[in-house]
Amino acid sequence: MSDVTLRPARPDDDVDPLLRAAFGPAEGAGVAGVWADVAASDLVRASLVAVEGDGTGEARGDEGRVVGHVGLSHAWLDARRALVDLWLLAPLAVAPDRQGRGIGRRLLVAAVDAARAGGAPLLALEGDPAYYGAHGFAPAAAHDIEPASRRTPAPACQVVLLPGHEDWMSGRLVYPDAWWRHDCVGLRDPGLAQVEAVLGLTGAGPQDGSAPAGQAGTEVSGVISSSG
Ligand SMILES: CC(C)(COP(=O)(O)OP(=O)(O)OC[C@H]1O[C@@H](n2cnc3c(N)ncnc32)[C@H](O)[C@@H]1OP(=O)(O)O)[C@@H](O)C(=O)NCCC(=O)NCCS
Fold first, then answer.
1. What does the domain layout of the chain look like in residue ranges?
2. Which CATH superfamily is domain 4-199 in?
3. Which end of the chain has a smaller Cβ tally under 10 Å, C or N?
């Protein structure tokens, strides 16, 4: 019997309180706002929740609370040959009292599976390279893919290439308006400068997706916390 079950989000699942709690006072309102706008649009590609219980409660009408969520939505890659439709993974959130028990990892695996099944050529995100790098994501720069903003430190822009990906699919990520309306793209100072200092980058410095050995892991963890 499982303690937490994953399923597609339903219209009556209110993930707003979860997003606000997981991302905290500084970021929670922005992240919840952008997801509310995305969810009300035609941009959603998948939305998965982790619910307490073994999955049998849904049929009985006494399901446990929602303790995790991952949103997948539409974005583009502005490649030389064509504008490429891709999937963006954001936000990923687990209730603070349930973190560190593998729920995030399960949601991440399910998200990659959903993007693959949905035919996305690649899945992109902005987030902590220490966390996502351990779960199959690689620096976007390694595939000649640039973040949507210069304010996203290169190691934080990460992708998983999926079977539909072709070699010519490189270029800049383009996010729909909702992300900009809520100012949820990249980081801003002073947080941006702080992360760049940890990574050994300057504002206009090397954006090659690499980070100095021993720094991209532990020290930047907890510093980069974006909508991913
Ligand atoms: C990030 C988040 C989704 C992870 O969910 P979670 O359920 O706590 O993660 P898991 O239990 O699956 O973690 C798996 C592993 O990653 C590690 N980990 C968690 N957060 C990490 C981070 N920021 N950096 C590096 N490792 C991290 C855990 O220690 C665990 O390691 P282990 O398997 O060796 O024990 C969750 O902590 C969260 O909601 N954070 C606030 C919202 C947020 O910042 N989301 C975006 C992240 S960039």
1. 4-199
2. Gcn5-related N-acetyltransferase (GNAT) (3.40.630.30)
3. N
Cβ of 155 below 6 Å from ligand 1: no
The residue whose C-alpha atom lies closest to atom 21 belonging to ligand 1 is: 131
Eight-class DSSP state of 100: T
Query: Is 105 touching ligand 1 by the criterion CB < 6 Å?
Result: yes
State the Cα–Cα distance between residues 173 and 124, nearest whole angstrom: 9
Residue 137 Cβ contacting ligand 1 at under 6 Å: no
Please work out whether the CB of residue 225 comes within 6 Å of at least one atom of ligand 1: yes
Distance CA(65)–CA(80), nearest Å, equals 45
The pLDDT profile of the chain, 228 residues, written as one tens digit per residue, is: 469 999 999 999 999 999 999 999 999 999 999 999 999 999 999 999 999 998 887 777 778 899 999 999 999 999 999 999 999 999 999 999 999 999 999 999 999 999 999 999 999 999 999 999 988 899 999 999 999 999 999 999 999 999 999 999 999 999 999 999 999 999 999 999 999 999 888 754 444 444 443 333 333 444 445 556
